[in-house]
Predict the 3D structure of the following.
Amino acid sequence: MTYHFSNRVPKSDVDPVGDILKVAGDPKVMSFAGGLPAPELFPVEQVKRAADTVFEQKGQAALQYGSSKGIPELRQVILDRVKVEGIETDADHVMFATGSQQSIDLTGKMFLDEGSVVIVEDPTYLTAVDVFRSYGARFVGVAMDEEGMKMDALELALQDNPEARLIYTIPTFQNPTGRTMTLSRRKRLLELAEKYDVMVLEDNPYGAIRWEGENLPSLKSMDKTGHVIYMGTLSKILAPGLRLGWVVAEPELIKKYTMMKQSADLHTDSLAQYIAAEYFAQNDINEHIAKITSLYHKREQIMMNAIDKYFPAGVTHSNPEGGMFLWVMVPGVNDTQVLFDAALARNVAIVPGDPFFGNETIPGTFRMNYSNTHEDKIEDGVKRLAEAIEEVMDKK
Amino acid sequence: MTYHFSNRVPKSDVDPVGDILKVAGDPKVMSFAGGLPAPELFPVEQVKRAADTVFEQKGQAALQYGSSKGIPELRQVILDRVKVEGIETDADHVMFATGSQQSIDLTGKMFLDEGSVVIVEDPTYLTAVDVFRSYGARFVGVAMDEEGMKMDALELALQDNPEARLIYTIPTFQNPTGRTMTLSRRKRLLELAEKYDVMVLEDNPYGAIRWEGENLPSLKSMDKTGHVIYMGTLSKILAPGLRLGWVVAEPELIKKYTMMKQSADLHTDSLAQYIAAEYFAQNDINEHIAKITSLYHKREQIMMNAIDKYFPAGVTHSNPEGGMFLWVMVPGVNDTQVLFDAALARNVAIVPGDPFFGNETIPGTFRMNYSNTHEDKIEDGVKRLAEAIEEVMDKK
């Protein structure tokens, strides 16, 4: 059999990030590479109780086919969640997807043709790059600093690419950098989106997990012209295994999303939706988020202290006020893989920066995750990573 | 805001089938239109027990991110299921998807470019038509009779379209016709797929629900050359709300499916997968399938008897040996919508045949579902439908 694949299928089976995560899964290896929530905080008992109620009260509905838009009970619940982000809306503006990843996928499918320009933060969420690329995207990366995407660089990108279809941004505790876009830049981004009439895809998986600084309004909450599509998820505040994400957009767009969703997988798991809705009815999600925030903050502080103590001079890093990631820049390194290899030789894993860039990469960068490593182990891992960095810097 | 949608987005928001199902959802209306399993047979108690075990024994894993390929426990379980279809394989040949719909979506994404030819049964599953069209498919329909796709017509289609990328078929209890492809045609289809080197997508959601005739081997079980991709699902034998489907294919293809799946939604709901695996461990699925088969058979017989009693002479229909659907052909009707309207005026809903065809339709055809209407109501519904048909036939 000769296979004739579409142009969307990557020619190579090489999956560098998959390979990294496989290596990082070795129990000998201390992994700062993944992006997993701390499983010890999953409210297993409470989810079980919610499931019991669902099976007792609406078992048949939870096992039957459902609406492509999602069950009304859960769309209703999510209106309270997005209020925290400053978004006042109604259930007609909300669709549930099989995790935020599907929201990104459907957005790519809806807005991109072969060669369409997507403007992304440099660096950005790597699986968004994969999925946009599969729909023919050409990427234009916009440089960032500690205040998020640089707005002069964004305007230049828009001037050079007036036909750009999407600006994809994770404004709060960005993946992979952990950086947060300032309020003034948020406002400027909206002005530019309006001026150049480009859709903005605002991805906010981490925003609720803040331990420092002030809550900033989401782009969507300040959007007066319908330019912003907002995506949220239960993956970081409840459980990623349930694959529950949502899109908030104009009803006209929700109609299109719902049609594309129907083609993609008919609808999101009914049982998971009912359980989540019941969990919200029975529990205070804010109490649970406070627990997550407190633990991740503790782990982040330990990581930061160890970095300050052990990392060689000249190495810089972001200073996240929440979320799960931080971004490290090692000066004078041309091949980031060398850093990865040196770390792995000491049984520590990180994700080299390259796959996070739409086109040109910044060498010597990598992402570290702190949410999924026990606080007793972090310092030792950072110490060994510091030795690896030192070795590579010495060689240059 | 001006929206610039991709070419994949249908220009019109009109969703004829959605509109039909909405009308059919009116409690006054007796609906033979949908395609829902009988919810009173969902094993709610047993699924609850399985869920309890999962929460007690592996709650954290069930709420955490998982592998794009699916959990090994469930892939292992499914090997026994596909053995019933004559497929002897191993877990490396299996990937789990968010329902069969996603298996179809990923197949379209992997194999179709703008203008690629997909050969389909005429008529065929309408949401497959939607999804293949969204990836640029051009359809070539192959006529059917009561023995399934006509093989001389298939060979002509292959000769005319040597670059065809896919043959999509539902060989057993087809949707929408309820027809089953004979063994000799199955063998011929495989010969043709091999001769013209075209992939076959074998969709088998209904195969287990057989009350008459002999089990026929799946195409995949007779495929010696890797031309067949097989898709199964738990939607019709356990619960569609869980969105659990699987693909069986060569490991080389499973690798590509897994990459596409990762872009689409990272992975299938972990909790649903663990619950399903535990359900299979605790229960005999064959006993449950026997219950489903017995009830659907009863309903189908009542429908068939009523059709024989009330439908006007000249109206023909398929004779399903299992599954959920039958197909009716009313002679001399040019506009099937008239039939639908006449039935709805008597508070009965069916699905007019048109959307099931890739290109040219056969007027006067419609699909009836019997799995989701209580046996006490079927005869009355068929009687009213017969009156509607009579009215339309008289007018012609």
Summary: Residues 285-310 of chain B form the longest helix (26 residues). The mean pLDDT of chain B is 95.
